[in-house]
Amino acid sequence: MKTFLGSAAAIALCPLMAHAIGLDRSAQNIDILFEDGNYAQLSFGRFFPDVSGTDLPQPLGPVTSPGGARSGNVADDFNNVALGLKYDFNDRLSMAVILDQPYGVDVHYDEGKSVRFGGTEVAVDSRAITALLRYKFDDNWSVHGGLRYQEIEADVRLRGLAYGLPFAGAPTTLNGYRGEFGSDGDLGYVIGAAYEMPEIALRVALTYNSKTTHDLRTSESVNGIDIATLTGGAFGDSVTEVEAPEAVNLDFQTGIAPDTLLFGSLRYAWYDDTKVSPDFFAQATDGDSLTSIENNWGGTIGIGRRLSEKLSGSVAFGYDARESNDLVSPLAPTNGSRSLALGLSYDVSEAINLAGGVRYIWINDARPETGDDVARARFEDNDATAVGFSIGYRF
């Protein structure tokens, strides 16, 4: 039963089927470390968000720009791929190597639609490789830990009246601002412990993921003119320090009836220190950050059940908590969500397993803001769909 339980839980936790706190995409999942025997898994996910909003009225000097313009869908579809390998050295010591894409953003406001943000866009990409060891003291207690090397890069463009009137050739407005952030990597660590009762397929695992610090080479410009030229050399290319958040994951599962598993997870991430304040942008905004993300948590709970000797299914409910208010960054115009995921797992043979799932997400309403917490648009009634597929091989 344990093999079935592991594969059923994996359906709900494969890429894009996990939490979406802040910039999260993979939730730094390490479940492969607890698979029986030697195991390799390739997972692929595709995310289809539908996130749109309506401009709010905005004062512009002595006049007010009317609202009402629709932004269209501002969230681009994206993929997430993960590869994992787990190997047993002996009955007590095992290792795992995981390649994933832990963080990301793909937001684009089409020009000619939203007056407030038309032309604004952001792309954040990441890559990570995690090497872990697990030591079992006995059939119940174990510890695990290792190192994670992670790279992050980004590109941000700010456009629209929410950032001021456009002034070609003068750095007096952020309407037309661009920040290009080159890739940089850093080494973090992972440490945790687990308690198991194999006879009832119980496992509780607590894992801490350290923060990583990235020094991103930064080039700033306004309306295509680099900052050094616009400011007479007062500002130029620089390095922006960005912290990827530390986080804690709590994963659990237990058999609750023959061939039936209750499983779930909780994740808390400390995003308060994730600030992106390149030199000129910080000076123009009195030290503001391109990001505005609070510490937050998310969770999943579900049931998996064996349907036949080869086929298993699962259903899971997910919840990502709202932030303290609905004023959010235009670069991430959402504020928590609820989701429902369905999955199937099929054992092609004793060595090969195929699993797939679909997840529907209800996205909470939010109001993108700029300046002194001034709402510029209202985003309501949004949703997303995610599909995931994985192939596992035991050897």
Molecular structure report:
Keywords: Cell outer membrane, Membrane, Signal, Transmembrane, Transmembrane beta strand. This protein has 395 residues and is mainly beta. The protein is built from 3 helices and 25 strands. The strands form 4 sheets. The protein has a 14-stranded antiparallel beta barrel. The longest helix has 12 residues, at 2-13. The radius of gyration is 23 Å and the shape is elongated.
Question: Mean of the pLDDT scores?
Answer: 90
> Which CATH C-level class is it?
Mainly Beta
Number of domains: 1
Strand content: over 45%
Which sequence of SSEs, written as H and E, runs from N to C? HEEEEEEEEEEEEEHEEEHEEEEEEEEE
Strand order of the largest sheet: 1-5-6-8-9-10-11-15-16-17-18-20-21-25
Query: Number of DSSP helices?
Result: 3
User: What is the assigned CATH homologous superfamily?
Assistant: Outer membrane protein transport protein (OMPP1/FadL/TodX)
State the distance separating the first and last CA atoms: 19 Å
**CATH architectural grouping:** Beta Barrel
- Given helix and strand content, the structural type is mainly beta
Which segments are poorly predicted (pLDDT under 50) over 5 or more consecutive residues?
A: 1-17
User: What is the helix fraction of residues, given as a range?
Assistant: under 10%
* Shape summary: elongated
CATH-defined topology: Porin
Report Rg. Answer: 23 Å
| Number of extended strands | 25
What can be said about the biggest beta sheet? 14 strands, antiparallel, barrel
